Amino acid sequence: MANAIESRSHYLRKTSGLNEEVFDSLIILAAGDIEPKAIALGFQRVQDLVKQMAEGRTSRLIRLGFTQEEAHHLASLHTKNFM
Fold first, then answer.
1. What is the pLDDT of residue 11?
2. pLDDT computed for residue 52 by the predictor
3. Where are the alpha helices (DSSP H) in the chain?
4. Distance between CA 1 and CA 27 in Å, rounded?
5. Residue 41: closest CA among 29, 58, 54
6. What Å distances lie between residue 48 and 24, 51, 52, 71, CA to CA?
7. How far apart are CA 6 and CA 78, in angstroms?
8. Are 75 and 60 in contact (CB under 8 A)?
9. Phi and psi based region of residue 32 (left: phi greater than 0; alpha: psi -120 to 50; beta: remaining)
10. What CA–CA distance (Å, rounded) separates 29 from 52?
11. For residue 13, is pLDDT > 80?
12. What CA–CA distance (Å, rounded) separates 25 from 19?
């Protein structure tokens, strides 16, 4: 499994992942408004989502038997595309 994750990461390394337009759209959706305070809240919500997703990947890998260090490394190879 580790080899598959590393291979996928290597293959997709040249992709840009989450582009600015998608990231900005996620912020606006999370904000629910275009007022500056809402945008700041939307940005924080998207950052929290990214963190939760990374923690979820890491914990699933640990449940599969990887060490904390291995799981963190493999989770960090995930492409930033919200898929």
1. 73
2. 92
3. 2-12, 20-31, 36-63, 68-76
4. 33
5. 29
6. 15, 5, 6, 20
7. 9
8. no
9. left
10. 18
11. no
12. 10
- Which amino acid is present at 25? S
State both tokens at 44: 């924080």
Tokens of 47: 């950052």
Rounded to whole angstroms, the Cα distance separating 25 from 10 reads 28
If you search the block for the tokens 């990887």, which residue do you land on?
66
pLDDT tens string 69-78:
999 999 888 8
Q: What is the pTM of this model?
A: 0.71
Query: 3-class SS at 32?
Result: coil
Residue type at position 13? R
Convert the pLDDT of each residue in 15-68 to its tens digit.
656 678 888 999 999 999 999 999 999 999 999 998 998 899 999 999 999 999
